[in-house]
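FORM 12-B: Structure-to-Sequence Request
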């Protein structure tokens, strides 16, 4: 590691320890279950999991970025684990943050009081089939207003599903990738035990760009070390 990377690791590790073994960022969250459906229609992406129809199990973690108490607005996060996206045992992790939808605001985290008030984006660039842009999950038309609080999100999902459209944005255009349906709370562990890493769990032709890669990787590793979590396999 470089000196800057070591600093990012230690800062994230210390923050996680001080939060009582919770993640350094997005400490207050809830685990959710759902599915991602890929239609496989339209022009080819050159990425196998997007070019063929399929339905994939998802474990999602919705969270508040700073853990501020309601009714204060807070940053919001949506982490997705798409199981078997790259074939049996090969999963895909995505980390999305509440943001704007415009050409510049899609790179900016925006505090919210509602979990479905707007899109969640990767903020930094992704490369999909040789194209560079940003991934985002947009609430589908008709998505209910949901207070931006883990308990409220879980409560809504006991009564109905909430859908998002996963899109890829390059320039001013957004192109749909898949449809995400969240349908309940996940039974497979506590939110703080789930380690998502979009660099370790990317797919050929589909992954985050190189900008700030080393710093982000060091910070993820530091947060896991601070709470004693194992790296994602």
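FORM 12-B RESPONSE
SEQUENCE OUT:
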């Amino acid at each position: 590691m470089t000196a800057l990377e070591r600093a990012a690791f230690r800062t994230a590790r210390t923050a996680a320890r001080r939060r009582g073994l919770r993640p350094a960022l997005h400490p207050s969250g809830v685990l959710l279950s759902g599915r991602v459906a890929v239609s496989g229609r339209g022009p080819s992406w050159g990425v196998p999991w997007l070019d063929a129809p399929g339905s994939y199990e998802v474990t999602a973690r919705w969270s508040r970025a700073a853990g501020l108490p309601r009714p204060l607005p807070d940053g919001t996060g949506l982490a997705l684990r798409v199981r078997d996206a790259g074939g049996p045992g090969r999963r895909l992790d995505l980390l999305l943050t509440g943001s704007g939808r415009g050409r510049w605001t899609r790179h900016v985290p925006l505090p919210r009081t509602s979990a479905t008030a707007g899109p969640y984006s990767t903020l930094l660039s992704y490369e999909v089939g040789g194209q560079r842009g940003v991934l985002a999950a947009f609430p589908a038309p008709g998505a209910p207003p949901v207070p931006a609080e883990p308990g409220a999100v879980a409560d809504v999902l006991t009564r109905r599903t909430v859908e998002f459209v996963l899109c890829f944005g390059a320039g001013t255009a957004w192109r749909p990738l898949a449809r995400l349906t969240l349908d309940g709370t996940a039974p497979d562990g506590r939110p703080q035990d789930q380690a998502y890493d979009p660099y370790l769990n990317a797919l050929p032709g589909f992954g985050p760009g190189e900008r700030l890669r080393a710093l982000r990787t060091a910070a993820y590793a530091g947060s896991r070390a601070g709470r004693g979590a194992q790296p994602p396999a």
